[in-house]
Design goal:
This protein has about 170 residues and is an alpha/beta fold. The chain has helices spanning about 1-20, 30-35, 50-60, 65-75, 105-110, 140-150, 160-165; strands at about 25, 40-45, 75-80, 90, 95, 95-100, 105, 120-125, 130-135. The chain contains seven helices and nine strands. A hairpin with a 5-residue loop joins strand 8 (about 120-125) and strand 9.
Length: about 170
């Protein structure tokens, strides 16, 4: 029984590691620097280490090869720990960890989520690093694919989501 539990734990760790490797995750500052050289939209995955749905998105959504390849080609992808302790400089302001209650939160995550600390939350920033939208909650690969195309192709400028969603053709494998 111990061996079975150990095998399960190793498999889970390996699967989670693969999900992380599929998408080329950057720090917030790295994405901003790369964006100066070659502008692209920025996808920000705001998570916490205790969030079950965050882990589920890593395993079921970001681990999908089609999703990972699409993100790597069309976005700078950022993993932002909503309770991270590292200072982050953005728009000439230093955002810090804010201790509150038993845990706390990172000020940048709270600012980007407009104070609504809900994990996971997926944010889309334009090439000009302006907030396009924030999507709280778990996104499965089918929904994520639609959202990625909608923002990377700037369809939000010309189409309502409802119309886009009705006409969308998936490329998922």
């Amino acid at each position: 029984m111990k061996n079975l539990i150990l095998l399960f734990a190793i498999t889970l760790f390996y699967t989670n590691t693969n999900a992380q490797e599929n998408v080329k995750w950057l720090s917030f500052e790295e994405a901003l620097e790369l964006n100066k050289e070659k502008p692209k939209p920025i996808l920000v995955d705001i998570y916490t280490d205790w969030c079950g749905y965050c882990k589920k998105m890593d395993l079921n959504t970001y681990s999908n090869k089609t999703i990972g390849d699409y993100i790597n080609k069309n976005f700078y992808a950022v993993k932002l720990d909503g309770e991270g302790k590292e200072d982050i400089v953005f728009n000439d302001h230093t955002f810090k960890f804010q201790k509150e209650g038993r845990r706390g939160y990172h000020q940048l995550a709270a600012s980007l989520m407009d104070g609504q600390l809900s994990y996971p939350t997926t944010l889309f920033l334009s090439e000009e690093v302006e907030l396009l939208d924030r999507i709280p909650g778990y996104l499965d690969k089918e929904i994520m694919e639609k959202v990625l195309v909608y923002f990377s192709e700037e369809l939000y400028k010309t189409k309502k989501w409802e119309d886009f969603n009705t006409d969308f053709k998936s490329n998922l494998k």
